[in-house]
Write a structure and sequence with these properties.
alpha+beta, 9 helices, 7-stranded mixed beta sheet, 8-stranded mixed beta sheet
């Protein structure tokens, strides 16, 4: 008798396990504070029907100079406050893994199912997907900014040259110029995400400090007082002579975030975790399947998701999140809690 996936995965236990067992990078992202729950009234709309969530907000008061009082009969001018809204998208995501039983015999000779390994690694898979979707949101916001807002969220020291100099690489000065795109709100930016190749430059130059926050089980890297998150998934643009690396600076609450593993019961377990089997496939060899699902809201605060290229479906693909045409900024620049620094390595 061999261990089957049904022996390892009990949906009622496994579904909350998927939600709680966060990989290192996701734990850092959430600890950094850049992911924050939305206002309660917005969170309530996440569980209702439809794909989009309308997020209304009051615009700030204008800076019209106040009147100077006098003893005339003239009436004071009346200013008004206006309201706007932005649209966030609910992303309902699913992944199905499967394995024919004969593959287990071919691999080990014992019939051990490759699906056992899938069950062990599925939380890490969803963690990587969250990381990719956060980065893709930032890519789309910056692409829209370059296309429609004169790149006022971007500071670039990148040059497409064969031999970049120190002036083209990440530095305190470059990072501060990127922070200054936030105006007087520059101190709000406390987290910087960069490609691992950029991070290695800082390690070589001994510019990284490691701290262990009291609530953290691991040490956290810092650069110039900012928490560093590095990933090989950060965007790299191929140049003729030298590649361009985009670093993203974030403030706490940069993204409205809800992460839900659905748990409605089904005949195969529950919506979050379903185990199915097809005994007839492979001319009777059989196959096991594990389907997992996540419902997510990862939305950059102050942005409108236009969903121009999203023809159907409950959510957007990574490619759709990266498109400038799917985004529009609704807040003033200094109230959108991110910036971009472009560098060489």
């Amino acid at each position: 008798m061999t261990t089957a996936i049904a022996d390892l995965v009990v949906p009622s236990v496994f579904t909350p396990y998927m939600a709680e067992n966060k990989p290192f990078k996701v734990a850092m992202l959430e600890q950094s504070g850049i992911l924050a729950p939305p206002e309660p009234q917005i969170a309530q709309r996440f569980t209702t029907g439809g794909v989009q969530i309308e997020v209304p907000f009051w615009d700030d008061l204008d800076d019209t100079e106040p009147s100077v009082m006098n003893d005339s009969d003239d009436q004071i001018a009346v200013s008004k406050i206006t309201a706007s809204d932005m649209k966030a998208y609910k992303h309902r995501l699913a992944k199905k893994h499967g394995s024919k039983n004969i593959a287990g015999y071919a691999a080990t000779g014992r019939g051990d199912s490759p699906m056992n390994r899938v069950a062990e690694r599925i939380s890490a898979y969803w963690g990587r997907q969250k990381e990719l979707r956060i980065i893709a949101n930032a890519e789309g916001v910056i692409a829209d900014n370059v296309a429609n807002d004169s790149s006022d969220m971007v500071y670039s020291i990148y040059s497409d040259i064969a031999s970049p100099t120190a002036a083209n690489r990440i530095s305190y000065q470059g990072m501060n110029r990127a922070r200054l795109t936030m105006g007087e709100n520059l101190d709000d930016l406390r987290v910087i995400a960069m490609h691992t190749n950029v991070y290695s430059t800082l390690l070589d130059d001994e510019k990284i400090d490691f701290k262990r926050p009291s609530e953290s089980p691991f040490q956290v890297p810092y650069y110039a007082g900012m928490m560093v998150i590095h990933s090989e998934q950060m965007p790299v643009t191929t140049g003729t002579n030298s590649d361009r690396y985009d670093c993203y600076l974030f403030a706490p609450g940069a993204f409205m975030h809800i992460d839900e593993v659905p748990s409605r019961p089904t005949i195969y377990g529950n919506e979050g975790t379903e185990i199915t089997r097809d005994p007839g496939i492979g001319l009777g060899g059989g196959a096991d399947y594990l389907t997992t699902r996540r419902f997510e809201l990862i939305h950059p605060a102050g942005m409108d998701f236009l969903a121009v290229s999203v023809a159907a479906g409950h959510g957007a693909t990574l490619a759709q999140l990266r498109l400038a045409t799917n985004w529009d900024r609704k807040y003033f620049r200094k109230n959108v809690k991110m910036a971009c620094l472009r560098v060489n390595i």
